[in-house]
Amino acid sequence: MATILAFGDSLTWGARPDGGGRHPTADRWTTVLHERTGFEVIPEGLRGRTTAFDMPVSPADTNGAALLPSILHTHAPVDLVVLMLGTNDAFCGVNPELAARGMARLIEIVRHHPCRIPCEVPQILVVAPPVIVPSSDITSAMIDASQKYRDLVTKIAELNEVEFFDSNDVAVCSALDGLHLDAENTRAIGASLAPVVTRMLAP
Length: 203
Known about the structure:
The protein has about 200 residues and is an alpha/beta fold. The chain has a five-stranded parallel beta sheet, with helices on both faces. The termini are close together. It is globular. Helix content is about 40%, strand content about 15%.
């Protein structure tokens, strides 16, 4: 059975937009992906995680590039790594161009991480997260950065010759907080990714 590592932020963790904590396991996109494909899906979602930048006021180390090598080592071997990050970069003042370079760095880490057991380099699927929408604590600058990042990360995937999926085609953030997903939208991402990863992991 193929193994998928889902490396993301609060959208992968399953944060609810109403501030009520975490969606039930059944409503997280990683669970839906597992149910639709039968593949093992390892959810590595951390609230506040960025592509490759520090957020010193966070209670956890949220720098994705700093943590990804250890996570790859922990779960090796994996057949596919899904990278869905970028939303939180706007909250620590990272411009969209640098955030896109952060995603490129994550792709580089996956491709060159020296696992100590014999295993193939995992395939990579970059997912553009849903763009931020207006809400009480969301600034216009955050929305602009999120929209620009969506376009830039598309190009990063193309330049690095990895698979790409735009979650904006199937999901939209909730206006309750502007950046998280209700159950219907997070489930939609898992359902829509299922045929993509099935094709990628076909024998």
